[in-house]
């Protein structure tokens, strides 16, 4: 069997991860379609917003201060947020790499881009580095607007809802979705790297995680295959551990020719500052 | 302690699904929307609400709801605003506004 095939015994982890992502994408699609067919309300099917982890972040302030959920959100959002935060605190930002349906779509579009052009087109470091802070700005803006308007302000701009909501009416969200889809062809996980507000939150929590992805420099041969395979453009080949930007997709581990060079290990020390790299993949 | 790749993947999924499963078993998993208790603005009225639910939320008779929405008297009370709006080629937002004129 071809070593690059996802069914090759050495790629069992990729098979499991992709099965998980496909499962969550299908589940979200099912919820979105069911809501469109059955309708909402007590007699119908819950809106997609009720199954959104970020909805938990948005509605948390309203719930804590007034004991009320924002329209279209519910207790399920807080349960999902709790689950995602627990996962992050134990395993790092693995929600992004193993569960997030929108991240999965970005990744798959990126694969199409790689097949079409034979490579990706990462941004130069001087653009990439400041642009990564944009998601923190976006997180702060969304939280501020949500609290001040007391509704899901981001809803009409949300590309996740534009896709999985299955309405496909002309809206800012649909335009953003189309733009992101085009950008993802050229830059892998563009939204995750530069715009995802939920990813921004997890990148702050991830360095506190119990299980860390570490590089053992004594075993590393400096082949840079880890850097080439990293969808988040992290300089895996030159750090002790991968830090907050890492989505724990474990592509670096799977592509590493030395099994001891990259390891998953539980440790107490917080990760060093987030490393950034994009040029390594050229 | 070392963690294998497969073991790691299963850990992620088990924790995530266990929290959801636990919440479901403790009845914390609530997704259904409820009828608003007080209605002050058109945003409080939802597209999924039936004429009967609108009348309950606004505390006015169904007949008056139909009158405000310029609907025939024999319109089915169980129809949702979204349904009625689309039958008339209107957006739900436009249709809801009629309730507050």
Give the helix/strand layout.
The complex is a heterodimer of chains A (282) and B (101).
Chain A (H helix, E strand, L loop, with lengths): L11 H27 L14 H14 L8 H17 L2 H6 L1 H17 L7 H7 L2 H16 L9 H6 L7 H15 L3 H5 L2 H9 L5 E5 L9 H5 L21 H5 L6 E5 L16
Antiparallel strand pairs in A: 1-2
Helix pairs in contact in A: 1-5, 2-3, 2-7, 5-9, 7-11
Chain B lengths: L1 E2 L1 H21 L25 H8 L3 H7 L12 H7 L4 H6 L4
Provide a descriptive summary of the structure in words.
The complex is a heterodimer of chains A (282) and B (101). Chain A is mostly helical and 282 residues long. Chain A folds into 2 domains: 11-33 and 47-206, no CATH class; 212-263, Alpha-Beta Plaits (2-Layer Sandwich). Chain A is built from 13 helices and 2 strands, in the order H-H-H-H-H-H-H-H-H-H-H-E-H-H-E. Chain A has helices at 12-38, 53-66, 75-91, 94-99, 101-117, 125-131, 134-149, 159-164, 172-186, 190-194, 197-205, 225-229, 251-255, and strands at residues 211-215, 262-266. Chain A has a two-stranded antiparallel ribbon with strand order 1-2. In chain A, helix 1 (12-38) crosses helix 5 (101-117) and helix 5 packs across helix 9. Residues 270-274 and 276-282 of chain A have low confidence and may be disordered. With 101 residues, chain B is mostly helical. Chain B has 2 domains: 1-31; 42-100, no CATH class. Chain B is 49% helix and 2% strand. Chain B has 5 helices and 1 strand, in the order βααααα. Chain B has helices at residues 5-25, 51-58, 62-68, 81-87, 92-97; one strand spanning 2-3. In chain B, helix 2 (51-58) crosses helix 3 (62-68). Chain B starts with a strand and ends with a helix. The mean pLDDT of chain B is 89. Strand 2 of chain A pairs antiparallel with strand 1 (2-3) of chain B, so a sheet runs across the interface.
């Amino acid at each position: 069997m071809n070593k690059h095939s996802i069914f090759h015994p050495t790629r069992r982890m990729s098979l499991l991860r992709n099965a998980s992502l496909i499962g969550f994408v299908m589940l979200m699609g099912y919820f979105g379609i069911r809501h469109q067919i059955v309708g909402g309300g007590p007699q119908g099917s819950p809106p997609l917003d009720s199954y959104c982890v970020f909805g938990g972040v948005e509605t948390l302030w309203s719930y804590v201060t007034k004991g009320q959920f924002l329209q279209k959100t519910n207790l399920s959002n807080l349960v999902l947020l709790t689950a995602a935060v627990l996962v992050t605190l134990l395993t790092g930002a693995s929600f992004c790499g193993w569960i997030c349906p929108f991240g999965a779509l970005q990744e798959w579009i990126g694969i199409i881009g790689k097949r079409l052009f034979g490579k990706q087109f990462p941004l130069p470091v001087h653009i990439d580095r400041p642009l990564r802070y944009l998601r923190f700005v976006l997180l702060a803006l969304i939280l501020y607007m949500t609290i001040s308007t007391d509704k899901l302000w981001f809803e009409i701009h949300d590309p996740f809802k534009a896709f999985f909501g299955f309405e496909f009416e002309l809206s800012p969200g649909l335009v953003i979705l189309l733009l992101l889809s085009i950008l993802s062809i050229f830059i892998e996980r563009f939204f995750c790297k530069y715009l995802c507000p939920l990813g921004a939150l997890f990148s702050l929590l991830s360095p506190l995680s119990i299980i860390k992805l570490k590089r053992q420099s004594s075993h590393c041969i400096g082949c840079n295959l880890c850097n080439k395979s990293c969808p988040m453009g992290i300089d895996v080949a030159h750090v002790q551990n991968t830090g907050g930007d890492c989505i724990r997709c474990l592509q670096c581990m799977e592509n590493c020719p030395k099994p001891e060079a990259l390891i998953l290990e539980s440790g107490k020390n917080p990760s060093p500052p987030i490393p950034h790299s994009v040029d390594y993949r050229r | 302690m070392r963690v294998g790749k497969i073991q790691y993947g299963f850990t992620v999924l088990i924790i995530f699904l266990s929290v959801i499963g636990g919440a479901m078993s403790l009845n914390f998993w609530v997704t259904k929307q409820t009828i608003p208790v007080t209605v002050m603005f058109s945003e409080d009225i939802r597209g999924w609400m039936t004429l009967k639910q609108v009348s309950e939320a606004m505390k006015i008779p169904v007949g008056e709801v139909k009158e405000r929405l310029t609907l025939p008297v024999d319109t089915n009370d169980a129809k949702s605003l979204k349904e009625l709006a689309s039958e008339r080629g209107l957006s739900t937002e436009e249709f809801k506004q009629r309730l507050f004129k």
